[in-house]
Amino acid sequence: MFSTSALVAGVAILVVLAAVAIFLVAESLPAFLANPADISSDGSGFWGLVGPLVFGTIWAAALALLISLPLSIGIALFISHIAPRKLAQGLGYIIDLLAAVPSVVFGLWGITVLAPAVQPFFVWLVDNLGWIPFFAGPVSGTGRTVLTVAIVLAVMILPIITAIAREVFLQTPRLHEEAALALGATRWEMIQMAVLPFGRPGLISATMLGLGRALGETMAVAMVLSPSVIISFALLQSQNPTTIAANIALNFPEASGIGVNVLIGTGLLLFIITLIVNSIARVAINRRKAFSGAN
Amino acid sequence: MTTMTMNRPVVASGYRPLTKRVQLTTLGLSVVVAFGIFFILDLGGATHNFNIIGAVVVAAVLDIILIYVLSRISEGRRKATDRLMTGLVTTAFLVTLLPLISLIFTTVVNGLPRFDIDFFGSSMRNVVGAGGGGLHALIGTLEITGAATLISVPVGLLSAIYLVEYGRGRLAQAITFFVDVMTGIPSIVAGLFAFALFAIFFGPGIRFGIGGAVALSVLMIPVVVRSTEEMLKLVPNELREAAFALGVPKWLTIVKVVLPTAIAGIVTGVMLSISRIIGETAPLLIIVGMSTSMNYDLFSDRMATLPVFVYTEYANQGMDTQAYLDRAWTSALVLILIVMALNLVARLISHFLSPKGLR
Amino acid sequence: MSKRIEINDLNVYYSNFLAVEGVSLTIEPRTVTAFIGPSGCGKSTLLRTINRMHEVIPGARVEGEVLIDGQDLYGPGIDPVVVRRQVGMVFQRPNPFPTMSIRDNVIAGVKLNNRKMSKSDADNLVEQSLQGANLWNEVKDRLDKPGSGLSGGQQQRLCIARAIAVSPDVLLMDEPCSALDPISTLAIEDLIGELKNEFTIVIVTHNMQQASRVSDRTAFFNISGTGEPGKLIEFDDTTTIFENPHVQSTEDYISGRFG
Predict the structure, then answer these.
(1) pLDDT tens digits, one per residue of B70-100
(2) Among A241, B201, B331, C89, which has the minimal tally of Cβ within 10 Å of its Cβ?
(3) If contacts are CB pairs under 8 Å, which of residues 48-77 in chain A contact chain B?
(4) Topology given in CATH for the domain delimited by B121-358
């Protein structure tokens, strides 16, 4: 009886996941099959709309990761190997606090505090480094650009990456660390010799999990970005490629008819992208478990 | 021979370690110079306001460079690199504190003006401009989160029990893998799923609270499974064996020995998972929608929730912009307070209720 | 209360690995039998087959018979749960339930099986079992305190009290003193001497002095190499095994020339 109900619950999870996939496919089929002219005015159809969205999603997430990854590794090292032992746990909690802030609050903060604060800096970048394509003008007057979004996303995924990185750094075998120190290594050389190589597979999966979160993050992007459906690498302009998730959030409440199916279709795509990214992360984690002999 | 080795200096000649005093002097110098630069820029009109954050960052960079150069001269390349990296890593930590402090500070400052009885005593029914409150949203959030918890906890708990106590072979592996995959489902996709599910039965205009609860459950179940799994694995096998050896059947062993031993950790995990989903906005925006009035009924009609309330108050500012923004910030403050409280209680529970024998 | 154990040509497998091969021995009621031998020789594994605890490990199975008073434990329709109520077990490390008081730990076997019991019956059982485990005088004032607050030796005696509270016929002990200090060990050994008046006791131990002190009969197990199955080498009266063994490898092991 009891074991059966436990089994049923376990299987229910598989069913739910399958249901997610099936229902999303069912509801997005009309969008795949519809006449392109019904979907967008220029007749490019579903895939014409989706291209820029997929680009925007990956672009914003990649930028966020670029900012977040070095910071996260730094913080994780600081907490695990540099800060005084007594402080370390408290500092960990502080970073975890960031994970507790709801994304809509990040959105509100991003648009009212961060965007105005970084806008003058953006002006300076465009004026002085405008010859680099990423910083090409004209500069956005509001600061609601893809770079600002990337900063907000970076702050949001930072606690995720930090938490895992901290964990793997702390698991470095003490013997390896002491062996390095006994050879006369400085602390940084010890980190290079023992901690980082040991933590690399863990870092890969942490990165992937952070990326997965950044890809799917909705409200912060929807609120901060001034969006358009374009493909552009410029970071500081007022025309920015929007993301799948933000596009759904902004347009779903008013959508009707085939529009709903199109949005669900893009959601299915997002689901698949994050599924791939997360699967890579899991494989990396499982590999590490198999080889490290830990647990 | 022996005397020679013993007389060899322990430290290579020319090695003069940087004293604490040198380090502090360098730091002070950097701060003075950095603030000086910004002060002059300010006077010259190059920047609009005295930029404290900018000055701090410049001071930090300056300090790191100075220490590196000094150390390179007196302590050698390796020690200098060590100091450089230590400085960078510490800076990374401090830089991250900036957004956190800024975010909490702004939320508190902007949220306090409307953190009043009116906010907790009234809905937005017939309110245009100033006044009104978020009671309807607070109730909606509590109801939907409660429903999501009611769905997720039994499923999550039993699944974890299956995985740890019964699961063997392919099926268990598949469930573990897909639970991990589910952890990564974007919240908006969960919202779309709930919508797609209910739209098939009730038509595309469907908006109701229980749909939101289903969407949140999709996000919550994997978190509950994971944390419960971890806690069950911490229960020593010896306790299970002790119970088996007394002739206790497996299911009673689980219910009466394993679960009570792990209960503190499990409750902590559940509370943390609630704190994870209570601030979710996107799925609720899609399947629950928004309402200005009180709606206690999970099974019919749109419902207000705090996160969506934050969003709509910001997105649809009326004539009296400030009133809308104030309500948005206050809701944000309430949300953060709820989440922090859940986190705090969770930590206290795990700290005080864990059986002593397991430490 | 006490019963005879017969093991007939028993093989124990973990999946495809044969851990114990061809063991046959008879254990008389009201005796203490010690299993000795080097690590990995299968003595603990064999012990766990006597109350079907080895089945807890996935893939473990047996061939052959284990009879208790003529009834095959592995016969069709025999519920391992029922077997374990008749054959109690004490483990290597003391494992009182951390969520329960001393009192609840003692009657755990009854309570966990959802059997109802009047308070006075329960009180009697607690006192009897703790008396039986020589623990009553030390803990009678703090029965409601958690069992994990006791010392290691006391915890182990609590576990013995817990095992005898379900009134089994046989008591299996898997290196019960290996985690204890010498004084606690002595207390347990004395207790074993008293318990054998009521129970058939089988004890696995690495400590040969202990085996010679507490047991009436001793079984020596050995393996010929890693990956090989453990076998019963010699089974005889303890005095014979320790003073005049018939097999060379037994003598080597006893005299410390081996392992």
Answers:
(1) 888 887 888 888 888 888 888 888 888 888 8
(2) B201
(3) 70-71, 73-75, 77
(4) MetI-like fold (1.10.3720)
